[in-house]
Design a protein that fits this description.
Elements: H1 3-9, E1 17-21, H2 27-36, E2 43-47, E3 68-75, H3 85-102, E4 107-110, E5 114-117, E6 120-132, E7 135-146, H4 150-159, H5 169-173, H6 179-194, H7 198-207, E8 215-222, E9 225-236, E10 242-246, E11 251-254, E12 259-263
Parallel strand pairs: 1-2
Antiparallel strand pairs: 2-3, 3-7, 4-5, 5-6, 6-7, 8-9, 8-12, 9-10, 10-11
Helix pairs in contact: 3-6, 3-7
The structure holds biotin.
Amino acid sequence: MDEQSVRAALAGLPLGGLRYYAQTGSTNDDAAKWLASGAPHLALVAAGEQTAGRGREGRTWQSPAGTSLALSLVLRPASVEQQPLARYTALGSLAVCSALEHSGLSARIKWPNDVLLQGKKVAGVLAEAHWNGERLEAVILGIGINVATESTALAEQREGRLRFPATSVSAAAGRPVERSRLLRAVVAELLAWQARALPAIMTAWQERLAFLNEQVRIETDVSGKAASQVGRVLGLEPDGSLRLELADGAVKALHFGEIRLHPLETDTI
Ligand code: BTN
């Protein structure tokens, strides 16, 4: 995928701007630099390869050349409607799910925003808020997708054993999937979802929630103190928190943060 094919793939979409890098450190960092110099709403950064891709909770994210998608979208909330951060974080996973659904694949969202195909992680979302005092100035929504079958082996080679089993879009589809077509589908879905109202986004997020009514293990790490608990996933709170029923019947809302969720069967991963 070179700049020309990326621009051709995204032609006609109402983006605020587009920057493409054949190789970069992290598209979220590029978008943050662009933001500092006035990136408009819906400015997009895409890269052929990331050498310092970042994941949630300070982890690294592998976007090997020729096998994956790495993109970051700048969202500038309208000043009149400062919405919960969850609204923006949900957009990334919803857009990827919808794009995959168009290809006949049934994707699920492991709360808060990992995209799963056949129970394995195919895409990750890193939403970073940029504040101006109390005011949310922008959210940079970074999305990484494993597209070609080699992407997961390359990631494993570099990372060692992955924390959660991984797959690629091509492996799940059983055929090679073209990155530029998927890029267009994901960006088109991002643009459509970001224009929708909060209730529609929350409903769609909940409909695609992985492990609904299933037992999961929740690991938290608050100030270096690790804890783990088991509960049944009941759904989402209106603000995007995860509603969980604990073994003693108590219902608890888990907020974003230092939380990891695993289905009980893959408990050891
Ligand atoms: C995760 O699952 O931990 C989130 C991974 C997010 C990776 C994407 S790739 C594009 C953007 N640039 C980054 O450095 N990270 C995000």
